[in-house]
Design a protein that fits this description.
With 446 residues, the chain is mainly α. It is 70% helix and 3% strand. A two-stranded parallel sheet has the order 1-4. The chain has a two-stranded antiparallel sheet with strand order 2-3. It is globular.
């Protein structure tokens, strides 16, 4: 069998062994996200306690609603808005870099490889939205929150896996990461198209011009943070004042950053790699937890919890996350595998894909953000936030039961993937087969 035939065969196996280079990149990203996810869980718990202890909840509200900034630039925002519009831009910038890397060197670089995760992610966004709309239509509610149950929170999901102490194979974790990356792109498109304020054409033209300059700096290999940081802040401020949610600026800049190394220019790491290395810990350990701290502070009471399951809007969110996400991702994956003739890894079962689909129902960070945009009235937003919390917890609990049930199988596969008897730093399973090169190993002139 020729190397080309071997690569074709490997690509036809769904959830098979990842190439070593790709697995190294994915493992590094997941390690940071897992740690950040644990911090995120802690921040969410602190927010709930802070908002529900009678002697402290007034302090929470005062800090959350405190305004500061530069009014002359239209940036006099509350602490909550600074975390949502400012710090989350870092999160979406990292998401943009991840998406660019997937398109250039990862699972999305060819149509054949991209079909499964993209179809699964799209179905995982469309079915929850449709289920939400059906629920509010039957109950006479508002359709404004249709996008709330669409997104997967990769950090929260990985934190659940860390708490469970599972040994999920690298391919399953990578598939979950790819789903979340496509989810993030869908979420930012929804935010940009459907949740915009009154547009300011002059500011938007300025933001677009800034992005063009950003691209030219990348094109001509200009290095130095003193170019990019002021330019990035300017683009962000113009995007915010233009009426488009400021996090769109983060994704746009992430997609512009090069993720391939230019060896002719003497680069040991691409700009995207350097930016991700610097910003991912800030995103996972600071930006997202602080957003959660000031977004998840929901006053919980028995009547409020009851309204989550009796009012159509929050009920639609819960059903969308728990039922819609599971059904959409599993059905999309199964159908895509059948039509692309992909062969499921014989060491795994479709029950593993189903468990992963349930886990993807955790929609914490982006769901809370879209909930705030869709329901600006605090009285309405409280029930939506409570629904996001409950739906995410239900999805996490169900996924925990399903994954723990298969953890013996996962441990065996994990041990086989990581066995390194010759102590050369590369698992033995990779030394027994030739690995296809990825585009990240090649010179680039993009």
């Amino acid at each position: 069998m020729t190397p080309t035939d071997q690569r074709q065969r490997e690509r036809s196996v769904f959830l098979g062994l990842l190439p070593w280079t790709e697995r190294t990149v994915v493992a590094r990203a997941l390690r940071t996200e897992t740690t950040g996810g644990l911090v995120l869980l802690a921040a969410a718990v602190v927010a709930l306690l802070w908002a529900n202890i009678p002697t402290l909840n007034s302090t929470y509200e005062q800090i959350r609603d405190f305004h500061f900034g530069i009014p002359a630039f239209g940036l006099d925002l509350s602490v909550q808005h600074w975390t949502a519009d400012g710090l989350l831009t870092i999160f979406f910038l990292v998401a943009g870099i991840e998406l660019k890397r997937e398109l250039v060197a990862g699972e999305l670089r060819t149509p054949a490889n991209a079909a499964l995760p993209v179809v699964a992610a799209v179905c995982g966004m469309a079915v929850p939205a449709a289920l939400y709309l059906a629920t509010v239509w039957a109950g006479g509610g508002s359709a404004e929150g249709w996008a709330v149950p669409m997104a997967t929170d990769i950090a929260f999901a990985l934190a659940v896996l860390a708490v469970l102490n599972t040994h999920l194979p690298a391919a399953l974790r990578a598939f979950l990461l790819t789903l979340a990356v496509v989810d993030d792109l869908g979420a930012i498109l929804v935010i940009a198209v459907f949740f915009t304020a009154d547009l300011n054409p002059a500011a938007l033209v300025g933001a677009f011009a800034g992005l063009v300059v950003f691209y030219l700096l990348q094109r001509y290999r200009v290095r130095g943070w003193w170019w990019y940081v002021p330019l990035g802040l300017t683009i962000w401020a113009l995007m915010y004042n233009g009426g488009v949610h400021a996090t769109v600026a983060g994704v746009a800049m992430g997609l512009i950053l090069r993720t391939n190394r230019d060896r002719q220019a003497g680069e040991s790491a691409s700009p995207g790699e350097r930016a991700e290395h610097l910003l991912r810990p800030i995103s996972a350990g600071i930006a997202v937890p602080l957003f959660a701290l000031f977004a998840a502070g929901v006053s919980i009471s028995l009547p409020a919890l009851g309204e989550v399951f009796t009012q159509p809007e929050p009920l639609g969110v819960v059903l969308g996350l728990v039922v819609g996400k599971t059904a959409g991702i599993f059905a999309g994956t199964y159908l895509a595998a059948r039509f692309t003739r992909a062969r499921l890894n014989p060491d795994l079962a479709w029950a593993d894909v189903f468990a992963l689909a349930v886990l993807a129902g955790i929609g914490f960070t982006v769901a809370l953000l879209i909930g705030e945009l869709a329901f600006p009235d605090p009285a309405e937003a409280v029930h939506i936030k409570a629904a996001v919390l409950i739906g995410s917890l239900l999805a996490a609990g169900l996924a925990a039961l399903l994954i723990k049930r298969r953890n013996v199988v996962y441990r065996r596969l994990w041990e086989a993937e990581n066995l390194d008897e010759d102590a050369d730093g590369i698992p033995d399973i990779y030394s027994r087969q030739s690995q296809p090169s990825t585009s990240s190993d090649r010179d680039t002139v993009d």
